Amino acid sequence: MQTIWLSGAEWLAVLRIGLGLWWLESWRHKDKKTWFAGGGITWAAGIAADHRWPVVRRGFDRFVKPRPRPMAYLVAYAELALGLGLIAGFLTPIALVAGVVLNLVYLVLMIHDWAEQGQNLMMALISLTGLFAMSWQSWSLDGALGLFR
């Protein structure tokens, strides 16, 4: 593949690293004190309670609502782990799949908010592109360690 300035694999690494920075920003901009005190789950509970799909309300009530503190930590530190993993290129395919799953959860939860839809769809598309194009081939710990060839 012929490209300007970088190879195709290097451009995919740029895309992967950019996605990692996006996830890192998702983690960084959270008010951790409020988030871990239940603010994030309370906010999501309000959205789930008014959701147009009953399955979302039931799923939230069954899995998230009984565990607000662990779920708050899970969401925040999943975003941090995704960001760091994608930037470093460590366990990249796993991080990309986890990113798609997390974006789809956000997408379903925020189905009524078109601004959120765009961000989550774009991040999921970048994750899928990075996964199927094997974006860990350049500038990654996976590549240096010979993982996922």
From TrEMBL:
It comes from Streptomyces angustmyceticus. This is DoxX family protein. Its main location: membrane. The chain crosses the membrane at residues 6-24, 94-114, 121-139. It is found in: Membrane. It holds the Pfam family DoxX. It comes from the Bacteria. Keywords: Membrane, Transmembrane, Transmembrane helix.
